[in-house]
Design brief:
The chain is an alpha/beta fold. The protein contains 20 helices and 13 strands.
Amino acid sequence: MKGLKKTSILLAAFLTASAAFSLTACTDPESGLKEGKTNITFYARHFEDWSDDFTKKMVSEFNRVPENDVYVDLKIYEEDTYNDAIVIAKENGKMPDLFMSSYSSLPQNVREETAMPLNTYFSDEAWDDLYGTVKNFVTFNGKIYGFPWFSEPGSLFFYRKDVLRENGYSSAPKTFDELYDVCQRVQANLKIGQYALGLPATPSDLAWATWGLQYNLTDGLAVSEDWLTSRIEHEGYKELCKFFYTCGKNKYSNVSSITADGYSNLVEALFDGNVMMSWGGSWQIALLHTLADENGDDSILSKIGVAPLPTLSGDANKTTSTNGGWCYTVSDSSAMVKKQAAVKFIQWLFVDHPEKIGEYFVDAYMCRQPASKRVSDYLATVDTGVDREWIATMQQVSSLAKSEALYPWDISYEVSNMLQACMQSGSTSFESVYRAAVTSAKTNIETIMSRASYTGNPWYNADGE
């Protein structure tokens, strides 16, 4: 979660960048492709380098299709400047015709009337091809505001199969109690600086990486669906606090970051042998393969397993993760001819050629779940080089995943402070540290909800429709 920079500074940067674009326009190698076509601007956010390369390749291929009467002008922004670029463009009345939205940011785009409803621009077959879970992420009051690209579960369980076998286990632990037992056995053979389990540990990571278990243990999140009542005293939150307390007190896990980017690349510690089991988002499947490639040895991949997170009950049919992901959004403020042109590009990339978008998931080491059933069917025929059990687990977890929290971030942050207090409590009794932590979280959440600027859930329907 990045804070916005001062508008004056951003505006100056925006104008400087615009001037730079104008200075190079006369030498644009694709200037000839733009002539006689509807030109649209596409703002994309930087992800991995290979992901950016894929987007550039697809745009270039589309621009060179002889019968296309549309030219896509692609601009890729770094992660920490992308949202700023969108804000500045909107403030200056120069919104891109096409832009990327995360599933968590799309509701705000809808509320600000930045995103255009897409229902009538694609066939029923195209919409029916989408997985229902992902389609729901982009649908508000019956209108679809983004074309989904992928989903990625934020919480999976990675583990060293060989280490577990050495300690008498043939599969990953399914319950908290089984996990504690594994941790205790594994811990006995570890060196200083090694842990049985790698967990998210900073407030900024705990705030979102635990959403899946919050759903699992409480059938909801920190506030009610209408966002008007705190749920932080639900018994399930006490169980979640007890989990982090147990792991921290017994030194089963790290209680602070052990990798450069915290939870985002936590499986690096698994790869390096500093943890034997680890939480991690599905994108870390790609990270493991990248680390293996860089080391010139992929033998360790066969020693690693992927499973759903262990839970209190071990029920494999309940949510253990939320799904993050991104979609393509058409600006509602663009001229109709440009809206139609943006739709043509989406149609070409996501609907007409499942094998093209399929390339992305192969390049991604299958760490993300396609939004399209046709793309999934295509990928089932391709040797992706990724363990089929890893893929099946990611797909299973994704199919049961819920949407990320859409209420104000500072509510999630209060939950994370509660969990971290329990995790770092040392020798203090659980009841004592929990009572202090939950009381503080409840007070602060209710203060947040009492602000004049705080609103209830704009998408809430009391009838559940």
